[in-house]
Amino acid sequence: MGLLRWLLAIGKKGRYHYPQETIITVGNIDPKYDRLYKAASRSEQGKWYKVNVQRLTCSCPDWQKRRSAYPPGDVRRVCKHVYDKLYQTGVEKHFDDIVRLLIRYGRRDRHFFRVDNARGTFVFGFTPGVPWVRVFAKVKGESVVGSYNMDEHRWAYDEVPQYERLLVQEIRAVFGGW
Q1: Tell me: the pLDDT tens digits for 45-95?
Q2: Backbone phi, psi, residue 131, to 5°
Q3: DSSP reduced 3-state for 50
Q4: What pTM value is reported for the model?
Q5: Cβ neighbours of 80 (radius 10 Å)
Q6: CA distances from 100 to 27, 90, 145 (A)
Q7: Is 110 in contact with 129 (CB distance < 8 Å)?
Q8: Contact by Cβ (8 Å): 106, 143
Q9: 120-126 and 132-139: which strand pairing?
Q10: Is-contact 103 26, C-beta < 8 A?
Q11: How far apart are CA 35 and CA 178, in angstroms?
Q12: In this predicted model, what pLDDT tens digit does every residue of 98-130 receive, in sequence order?
């Protein structure tokens, strides 16, 4: 790419509308899960954390530092240890498909925006000022996940998800900018 073309391209980067976030909750969890479970650290042998599945709490540093600030029931309260226990207890089977995608693949995302329309359900995980958008969708009964760079117009690792054209249209409708 020539220098002038590159300079013109970077001048257009980052001009997106970042929407007001949507709070997405896991829904009701049976009170019988309102107790402490032991969860093994994934990185430190012999280290254990205390997890409450019903309250979506954990004693790990990630939960204490970042996730504890989110309101009760918010999907962003789910750290990897809470996720493991939701899965092991079978509680996650009762969540809707989009919530299951978010707690599995969207744990790094700080903001979500949800769109429900005739074409499907779409949740966008994003950080204002960052060109990457993670898409979690339910289209024609199928779950779809992908990460898209709005500056470079490409999917992460060149892994193009099913319904790519539709997903890009939805990203453009929400974030604009190009």
Answers
A1: 999 999 999 999 999 999 999 999 999 999 999 999 999 999 999 999 999
A2: -75, -10
A3: strand
A4: 0.86
A5: 18
A6: 11, 12, 12
A7: no
A8: no
A9: antiparallel
A10: yes
A11: 49
A12: 999 999 999 999 999 999 999 999 999 999 989
3-state secondary structure string, 121-171?
EEEEEECCCCCEEEEEEEECCEEEEEEEECCCCEEHHHCCCCCHHHHHHHH
Tell me the C-alpha to C-alpha distance, in Å, between residue 53 and each of 1, 19, 84, 104.
52, 30, 10, 15
Digit-coded pLDDT (tens) for 21-51:
999 999 999 999 999 999 999 999 999 999 9
**Token pair in block for residue 63:** 């939960």
Q: Which amino acid is at 165?
A: R
- Asked if 48 contacts 36 with a C-beta cutoff of 8 angstroms, the reply is no
What's the token pair of residue 64? 């204490």
**Three-state DSSP state, 105:** helix
**Where would I find the H helices in the chain?**
3-12, 61-65, 80-89, 97-105, 164-175
Task: List the one residue out of 9, 25, 154, 17 whose CA is nearest residue 77.
Answer: 25
